[in-house]
Amino acid sequence: MEVINIPPLPMDRPKPRRSWATFRTVSALMLREMSTRYGRSPGGYAWALLEPIGAIVVMAVGFGLLFRSPALGNDFLLFYATGYMPFSLYQTIANVTARSISFSKPLLMYPAVTWMDSLLARFLLNTLTGLLVAIVVFWAILSFSSTTTVLDLPLIALAMGLSALLGLGLGTLNCYLGTRIEVWDIAWSILTRPLFIVSGVFFLYEGVPEGAQKVLYYLPWIHISGLMREGFYPTYRPEYVSVAYVLLWSLLPMVFGMMLLRRYHKDLLNR
């Protein structure tokens, strides 16, 4: 009987690649964050909805006692919601993406999980959550108020998309800087604390003095708030809005941040 000798398999043969590896990893990271961020607190996802509603109601009641009508229309809730929701989306995404490496640091020690997976997971989860919350908030305001408006959905989607992209761009760069420089998070928090006041949540760009307009124009958040309000108020035409300028603010930090993370992510994990 003839014996067939089967040659041994080489020890250094490449391992088969898993199909949809990035999708599986990102999905797992998203589920992990959902369980740790929302699953362990009473109310869970309800807080993601109650927080912006509470902020908008407080602003509407407070300014309603001081002024007869908002700068646009006659509904304080809608006016402040159109300024607050895109800024809230930007702020949330910028904060969570900036902490991507520190949040998932134990998992990044595994070869199957990369810094890009962590960044994408936090960005996608919080973007979807922010968009869902915005839809519910605006639906509630338009349903239970006497305001009648013709929505420009492409403009609204563009404004929210730019908010998410701006948060991702600045958050990616801060992800490197915050991990490399110990005091960066504190310094950035101090520098950006006035943004909520000057981002156009409480006022219109055209309603401030000309000298202030020249300064505010260079803030990308003022362009996003103007674009958002144009989508809700058909008679409002913000001539100052520049989508290209917001894209520049978003893409440049993102490119530099990704280049730095790609080059130094191993050093950051060992810090």
SSE blueprint:
Blueprint lengths: L20 H18 L7 H21 L9 H23 L1 H4 L11 H30 L8 H28 L3 H9 L2 H4 L11 H7 L3 H13 L10 H27 L2
How would you summarize this macromolecular structure in one to three sentences?
The protein is mainly α and 271 residues long.
Kindly state the mean pLDDT as a whole number? 85
How far the N terminus sits from the C terminus, by CA atoms, comes to: 63 Å
How large is the count of helical segments? Answer: 11
Beta fraction of the residues? Answer: under 5%
Main beta sheet strand tally, sense and closure: none
Inertia-based shape: globular
Write a structural description.
This protein has 271 residues and is mainly alpha-helical. It has 11 helices and no strands. It has helices at residues 21-38, 46-66, 76-98, 100-103, 115-144, 153-180, 184-192, 195-198, 210-216, 220-232, 243-269. The protein is globular and about 60 Å long.
Key terms for this structure?
68% helix; globular
